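Model it.
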Amino acid sequence: MEQLDNHKKLIYIKLTHTAVWSILVAAILYILYAGIFDSVGMLAWFCMGLIFVECITLLLCKGKCPLTLLGYRYANNPGEGFDIFLPTWLAKNNKIIFGTLFSVGFILVLWRVL
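Modeled.
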């Protein structure tokens, strides 16, 4: 019975993690859009603040999302992407892909502002 409860808890973590990930990816893509199309406004600044909060959170958790750390409690054999509904290759390369897109967007926004 406990195994079933752990499975349900892991599903809730995966759903939450996927929703949060989607919001952060949307924020990164908007920052990139704002930088490319010179559309830097309050929403772009809000999105950058959101991503900076995520970066600080990852730094404080030694590179792991708090939801991943929570997921370890309920997973028997945690592998790459066990805690999120993403393809394994994307979960594995998530920080590289979206970190690069954020960096490019951030530089473009700074260039537009300055």
